[in-house]
């Protein structure tokens, strides 16, 4: 175990002269409880990763291994390392993250315990260190055993749910442990209740002081129309000392402060009054994301210095909840820099069950994919983890706004003293860590726990309800909310999602219907109802969750399965499905509009079935999202003014069926390609309403600079020539709103077109400037289900691939004999994405480009390219 004990590295924000930092990351020794397993293990890391890397187990995601490896989480494990130190002074062992229940000892002396994976722990070890060979041990208890013990010890009343539904094949009582709630299984993920030291460990030795954390929060002073940057420093001081602090934001401001510090932990605040004008930070699609650099230097009287930098960005955020004319209830929308912004995005879940395996690349690919799909917001969902710093820094750069949940989901929680205490520390640390990021625009207490009480998910009797409401208010309002408001007055705080916001507060924090579309945000799922029936969707103020499942691609699944698994009715297919009736729901929904795949080759049929689930998902989420975007300026029967759509869910934790638009590994599903269009800044969206064809122009722009007309074409399924073309009158595109630009009875249109029936034709449309410039992506609407379409022929698509002459970019030229719908290109394992996919092909030649994420060749792409269209699968 000779990891780089002496390698000097500074992982803190501050580089200092007198503080010595010894990284204890690297190889440790790992032992199970009866010593039958002994391997070396990387820190940061977890037991599963160590066992896999040492060849003790194979891929935990492979086939049924989640069940086979259950024993790992039921055992207790000890991590050991040894090191020598030379520094003298106050010594503190810093654990950035331990997963989760542990007892830590140094040279045989217990120095601390941990019970919360979301906290950093600092254990003072002054006087315990030897010059030679210090032995550091972290004994980690099974999280499953701990959770069950805590639940058993809670004898006064039950804190449900006890266990996840059997279909999830998970562990029980996860609400009793401060650990990623999805690690005991979820309806999209496996049960891997990890154990380990998931973040860095270091020893800090110092004689004067060390800086614990450093925050910078710009606040707008509307009275003076200027900005104040609040800088806070948190110190651990050994001896009373004085210092001169220099702070500067180049070209904007610099200032000096005198500081005197007394021994103990202390917090010092400074305010930088910026008198110059600043460039504002905007969400993606609304402007730039300028990030200034704040530099800080602390010069101690004794000559020591500390230096650090942090990015600062200027923006305001407000959540507007106020009466709306002609609508009961209250609005619910975000205003950034005083401008209403429609949030377009998705929900973020943990990137991996083994968090230590999350790489910079994985996070970057996902966030770049979100931005490429025109998203400006993501919700970090409350059943996973507070993401790592890199995630928020990239969101700052990309202009992706973050709705940050606290990590509580779909359960009731205990409120005993120890639990509350550890949560308080967690919340304080996380808010201090994240509040300097402009991307974070809102804090939210939990996922669906207000709804769980209101809709009585856990069969609580009327007599007991007040007890649970009291616990709810104590945890999320009196503790979490209070702490957040103390630490950060610059962002809105919501107690839950979904919630009625201020209306929930009025009703004692648990509204009688947190899904009320007149208030706050809503979550809405309906799997069996026809998703083409847009009138069934709630016209909510803000859709923070909605979605449909699909299966990931064959190439993704084949990494963890074998030939006998490649069938929709295999054990593997039902094992991976963690949502009750999920596979049925997908097929039933697909069957409403498509003929289900029935080709005779079983593997082909399996691939086709995956395809049809992705077609269904893309189509359903598109219809629902377009409905919400159209509703941004409408009030219908008192409902509307929808100002956000975050579909469930962006990413996947493993290779299984889920609501995600990006697969585990980064491959885009059809939905993700489609999101690029339905999240376009200017969208044209059509619906059929009482026999009329309506086309709306939805604009996220802030100024009414465009005159537009809708260009509409009818195509028959059997020809590439448009049957007829129509144009609307020129209309002014309403800024930040939805405008009806075209309305005609379908029967009249069909008659006018002559050779068209609902079944034989499809309608394409887009917005164009009066001069003919395209203003919105090309869109289309079916006048009948494709399963009833008439005149459809096999399109016989062929292709050629050529190097595009730009690095890693290729042009695929497609030829088809007849119009084709949902044309899907899949290059199996070659990472990258196409510029469009899953499209309607209405000319006999089309070109598509593929940008690869690693070097490849036209030959390799040709050899791996599969092309499927709807007519091919039956
Ligand atoms: C929502 C989420 C998750 C879940 C999803 C799909 O309620 O908050 O708990 O994965 O539904 O069922």
UniProtKB/TrEMBL annotation:
<feature type="domain" description="Mannosidase Ig/CBM-like">
    <location>
        <begin position="692"/>
        <end position="788"/>
    </location>
</feature>
<keyword id="KW-0458">Lysosome</keyword>
<dbReference type="InterPro" id="IPR013783">
    <property type="entry name" value="Ig-like_fold"/>
</dbReference>
<dbReference type="InterPro" id="IPR008979">
    <property type="entry name" value="Galactose-bd-like_sf"/>
</dbReference>
<feature type="domain" description="Beta-mannosidase Ig-fold">
    <location>
        <begin position="793"/>
        <end position="872"/>
    </location>
</feature>
<dbReference type="GO" id="GO:0006516">
    <property type="term" value="P:glycoprotein catabolic process"/>
</dbReference>
<dbReference type="InterPro" id="IPR006103">
    <property type="entry name" value="Glyco_hydro_2_cat"/>
</dbReference>
<feature type="domain" description="Glycoside hydrolase family 2 catalytic">
    <location>
        <begin position="334"/>
        <end position="452"/>
    </location>
</feature>
<keyword id="KW-0732">Signal</keyword>
<dbReference type="InterPro" id="IPR017853">
    <property type="entry name" value="GH"/>
</dbReference>
<keyword id="KW-0326">Glycosidase</keyword>
<dbReference type="InterPro" id="IPR041625">
    <property type="entry name" value="Beta-mannosidase_Ig"/>
</dbReference>
<comment type="pathway">
    <text>Glycan metabolism; N-glycan degradation.</text>
</comment>
<dbReference type="Pfam" id="PF17753">
    <property type="entry name" value="Ig_mannosidase"/>
</dbReference>
<dbReference type="Pfam" id="PF22666">
    <property type="entry name" value="Glyco_hydro_2_N2"/>
</dbReference>
<dbReference type="InterPro" id="IPR036156">
    <property type="entry name" value="Beta-gal/glucu_dom_sf"/>
</dbReference>
<dbReference type="InterPro" id="IPR054593">
    <property type="entry name" value="Beta-mannosidase-like_N2"/>
</dbReference>
<dbReference type="GO" id="GO:0004567">
    <property type="term" value="F:beta-mannosidase activity"/>
</dbReference>
<comment type="similarity">
    <text>Belongs to the glycosyl hydrolase 2 family.</text>
</comment>
<dbReference type="InterPro" id="IPR050887">
    <property type="entry name" value="Beta-mannosidase_GH2"/>
</dbReference>
<dbReference type="GO" id="GO:0005764">
    <property type="term" value="C:lysosome"/>
</dbReference>
<keyword id="KW-0325">Glycoprotein</keyword>
<dbReference type="GO" id="GO:0005975">
    <property type="term" value="P:carbohydrate metabolic process"/>
</dbReference>
<comment type="subunit">
    <text>Monomer.</text>
</comment>
<keyword id="KW-1015">Disulfide bond</keyword>
<protein>
    <recommendedName>
        <fullName>Beta-mannosidase</fullName>
        <ecNumber>3.2.1.25</ecNumber>
    </recommendedName>
</protein>
<dbReference type="Pfam" id="PF02836">
    <property type="entry name" value="Glyco_hydro_2_C"/>
</dbReference>
<feature type="domain" description="Beta-mannosidase-like galactose-binding">
    <location>
        <begin position="28"/>
        <end position="199"/>
    </location>
</feature>
<feature type="signal peptide">
    <location>
        <begin position="1"/>
        <end position="19"/>
    </location>
</feature>
<comment type="function">
    <text>Exoglycosidase that cleaves the single beta-linked mannose residue from the non-reducing end of all N-linked glycoprotein oligosaccharides.</text>
</comment>
<dbReference type="Pfam" id="PF17786">
    <property type="entry name" value="Mannosidase_ig"/>
</dbReference>
<dbReference type="InterPro" id="IPR041447">
    <property type="entry name" value="Mannosidase_ig"/>
</dbReference>
<keyword id="KW-0378">Hydrolase</keyword>
């Amino acid at each position: 175990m000779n990891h780089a004990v002496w390698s000097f590295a500074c992982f803190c924000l501050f580089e200092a002269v007198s503080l010595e930092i010894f990284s204890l990351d690297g190889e440790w020794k790992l032992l199970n409880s009866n010593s039958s397993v002994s391997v070396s293990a990387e820190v940061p890391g977890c037991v599963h990763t160590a066992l896999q890397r040492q060849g003790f187990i194979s891929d935990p995601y492979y086939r049924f291994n989640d069940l086979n490896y259950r024993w790992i989480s039921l055992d207790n494990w000890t991590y050991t390392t040894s090191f020598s130190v030379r520094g003298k002074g106050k010594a503190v062992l810093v654990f950035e993250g331990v997963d989760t229940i542990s007892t830590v000892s140094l040279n045989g002396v217990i120095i601390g315990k941990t019970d919360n994976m979301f906290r950093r722990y600092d254990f003072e070890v002054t006087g315990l260190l030897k010059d030679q060979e210090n032995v550091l041990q972290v004994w980690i208890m099974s999280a499953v055993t701990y959770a069950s013990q805590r639940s058993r010890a809670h004898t006064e009343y039950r804190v449900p749910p006890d266990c996840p539904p059997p279909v999830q094949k998970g562990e029980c009582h996860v609400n009793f442990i401060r650990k990623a709630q999805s690690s005991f299984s979820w309806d999209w993920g496996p049960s891997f209740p990890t154990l380990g030291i998931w973040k860095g460990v270091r020893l800090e030795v110092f004689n004067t002081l060390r800086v614990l954390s450093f925050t910078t929060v710009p606040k707008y002073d509307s009275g003076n129309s200027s900005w104040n940057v609040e800088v806070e420093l948190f110190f651990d001081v050994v001896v009373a000392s004085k210092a001169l602090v220099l702070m500067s934001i180049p070209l904007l401001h610099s200032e000096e402060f005198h500081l005197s510090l007394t021994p103990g932990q202390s917090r010092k605040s400074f305010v930088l009054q910026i008198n110059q004008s600043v460039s504002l930070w905007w969400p993606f699609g609304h402007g730039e994301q300028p990030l200034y650099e704040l530099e800080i230097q602390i010069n101690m009287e004794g000559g020591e210095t500390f230096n650090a930098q942090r990015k600062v960005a200027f923006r305001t955020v407000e959540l507007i909840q106020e009466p709306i004319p002609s609508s009961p209830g209250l609005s619910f929308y975000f205003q950034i820099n005083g401008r209403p912004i429609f949030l377009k995005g998705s929900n973020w879940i943990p990137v991996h069950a083994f968090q230590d395996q999350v790489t910079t690349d994985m996070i970057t690919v996902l966030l770049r994919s979100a931005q490429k799909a025109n998203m400006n917001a993501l919700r970090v969902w409350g059943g996973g983890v507070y993401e790592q710093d890199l995630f928020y820094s990239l969101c700052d750069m990309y202009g992706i706004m973050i709705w940050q949940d606290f990590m509580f989901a779909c359960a009731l929680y205990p409120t005993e003293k120890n639990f509350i205490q550890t949560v308080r520390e967690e919340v304080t640390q996380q808010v201090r860590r994240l509040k300097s990021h402009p991307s974070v625009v809102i804090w939210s207490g939990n996922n669906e726990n207000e709804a769980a009480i209101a809709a009585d998910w856990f069969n609580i009797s009327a007599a007991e309800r007040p007890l649970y409401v009291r616990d709810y208010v104590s945890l999320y309002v009196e503790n979490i909310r209070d702490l957040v408001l103390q630490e950060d007055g610059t962002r809105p705080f919501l107690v839950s999602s979904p919630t009625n916001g201020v209306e929930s507060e009025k009703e004692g924090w648990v509204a009688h219907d947190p899904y009320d579309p007149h208030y706050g945000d809503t979550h809405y799922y309906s799997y069996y109802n026809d998703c083409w029936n847009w009138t069934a969707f709630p016209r909510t103020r803000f859709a923070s969750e909605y979605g449909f499942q699909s299966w990931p691609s064959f190439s993704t699944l084949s990494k963890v399965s074998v030939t006998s698994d490649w069938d929709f009715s295999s054990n593997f297919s039902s094992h991976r499905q963690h949502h009750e009736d999920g596979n049925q729901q997908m097929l039933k929904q697909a069957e409403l509009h498509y003929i289900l795949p029935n080709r005779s080759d079983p593997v082909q049929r399996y691939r086709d079935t995956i395809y049809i689930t992705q077609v269904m998902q893309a189509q359903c989420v598109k219809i629902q999202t377009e409905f919400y975007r159209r509703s941004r300026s409408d009030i219908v029967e008192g409902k509307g003014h929808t100002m956000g759509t975050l579909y469930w869910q962006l990413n996947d934790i493993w290779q299984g069926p889920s609501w995600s638009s990006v697969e585990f590994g980064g491959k885009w599903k059809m939905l993700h390609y489609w999101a690029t269009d339905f999240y376009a800044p200017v969208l044209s969206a059509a619906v059929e309403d009482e026999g009329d064809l309506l086309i709306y122009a939805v604009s996220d722009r802030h100024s009414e600079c465009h005159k537009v007309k809708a260009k509409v074409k009818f195509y028959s399924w059997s020809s590439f020539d448009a049957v007829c073309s129509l144009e609307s009158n020129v209309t002014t595109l309403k800024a930040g709103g939805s405008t009806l630009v075209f309305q005609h009875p379908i029967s009249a249109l069909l008659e006018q077109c002559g050779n068209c029936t609902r079944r034989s034709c499809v309608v394409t449309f887009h917005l164009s400037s009066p001069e003919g410039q395209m203003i919105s992506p090309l869109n289309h609407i079916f006048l009948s289900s494709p399963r009833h379409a008439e005149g459809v022929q096999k399109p016989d698509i062929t292709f050629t691939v050529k190097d595009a002459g730009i690095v890693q970019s290729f042009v695929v030229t497609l030829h088809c004999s007849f119009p084709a719908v949902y044309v899907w290109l899949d290059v199996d394992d070659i990472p990258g994405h196409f510029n469009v996919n899953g499209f309607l092909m209405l000319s006999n030649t089309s070109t598509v480009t593929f940008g690869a994420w690693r070097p490849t060749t036209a030959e390799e792409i040709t050899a791996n390219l599969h092309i499927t269209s709807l007519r091919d699968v039956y």
